Amino acid sequence: MKGTHLRLVDAVGLDTVAVALDALEGALDAAPVESLPEALGGLARLEAMTRLRLSHPAQGAAIQAEERLLGVEAAAARLGLSSVALYKKADDFPFTIRRGRSLRFSDGGISAWIRKRTR
Fold first, then answer.
1. Burial group, residue 18, by CB count within 10 angstroms (0-12, 13-18, 19+)
2. What is the domain count for the chain?
């Protein structure tokens, strides 16, 4: 469906997001099958970020990562894990937040954990 998505226009009138989506679609078409699960994780992360911005339009970029709580799918995408693996390992991570039966993950906590592990 290359080129069939909505035309997205930035502040200076360039369709940079649309061009990026077209390039991504081309890259996915050419990507080896074994790299597609990682690509799906990245796409899930981008979808979560987009949904967050849509749900808080007045705040926009002012929403701090430390204030955000992610669901299992978004957190798994950031961590490069499957949702099933994250459910199983949730209690091993310091950024897991349980409220009753609800399971959420601190976006800022994930960022700090990743920074700590990549030093």
1. middle
2. 1
Q: Which domain holds residue 100?
A: 31-117
Does residue 65 belong to any structural domain of this protein?
Answer: yes
pLDDT in tens for each of the 119 residues of the chain?
444 444 444 444 446 777 777 888 888 899 898 888 888 877 877 777 777 777 766 554 544 544 688 999 999 999 999 999 999 999 999 989 888 888 999 998 898 889 888 87
pTM for this prediction: 0.45
Q: Which helix (H) or strand (E) holds 96?
A: strand 96-99
